[in-house]
Amino acid sequence: MTAESLSAKGFARESLAVLDRITESARDEVARAAELIAECVRSDGVIQAFGTGHSQAIVLELAGRAGGLVPTSRLSIADLVLYGGDEPSVLDDPLLERESGVAARIYDLAAPSPQDLFVVISNSGVNNVVVEMALHAKEHGHRVLAITSLAHTRAVPAAHPSGKKLADLADVVLDNAAPRGDALLDLPGGGSVCALSTLTGVMLVQMTVAEAASLLLVSGERPPVYVSANVPGGFESNLGLEKRYAGRIRRPAS
């Protein structure tokens, strides 16, 4: 490793190279993921996005943001408190995402419709709650789109009692191309620094949304897309679009 590689310039160079690669390597999977999203929107479904830890950044990229699709809902472990009546102290447990039964409760609180699509995001793809969410969604007949690191998930053992990992359960897998452990730049003497999965996850989400919007337009349906609430009339326009999905999408303060 050179001094230049462990630098702002080095991270920019290495991460941009990965982003450039996935625009080509993920092309077929992005097209398949876009079909799932477009079909969900056409059938009056909602895209239910779920992740824990830093994967919530990718959830936020998909659900409820300017330029994004309106029929999207953010699922979270915090729903146990916000909608399930649990005491806020339950969120103090850093291992909550590994407990059995948590995902099933989050699913039940969301009360999804049969046509809803689940997008489950996890870099490792092995924590109990993400695997359980994918299993629960599949058992209830939903399609599942996973965003995960295949390099990482293939390098670690399954943690769920089923022996399954997130990638094993998904109808479509988008590989975020992050290395095992996520960090991109090697440190002298071992270890690494600067996580990659958020950058690549955002790229995959926006590529997929763009393709899905194109598919909807081709089929004669205008994509229901959010306008920034910080431009004149944007907030009012968004409220009008959200009426179609009243009671089915959540927009908590964040």
Automatic annotation (TrEMBL):
Stored PROSITE patterns: SIS
Organism of derivation: Streptomyces himalayensis subsp. himalayensis
Domain SIS intervals: 37-223
UniProt-listed GO biological process terms: carbohydrate derivative metabolic process
Pfam families linked: SIS_2
GO molecular function: carbohydrate derivative binding
UniProt superkingdom: Bacteria
InterPro entries found in the cross-reference section: RpiR-like_SIS, SIS_dom, SIS_dom_sf, SIS_GmhA/DiaA_subfam
Protein name (Swiss-Prot/TrEMBL): SIS domain-containing protein
Source taxonomy: Bacteria, Bacillati, Actinomycetota, Actinomycetes, Kitasatosporales
NCBIfam families found in the cross-reference section: PRK02947.1
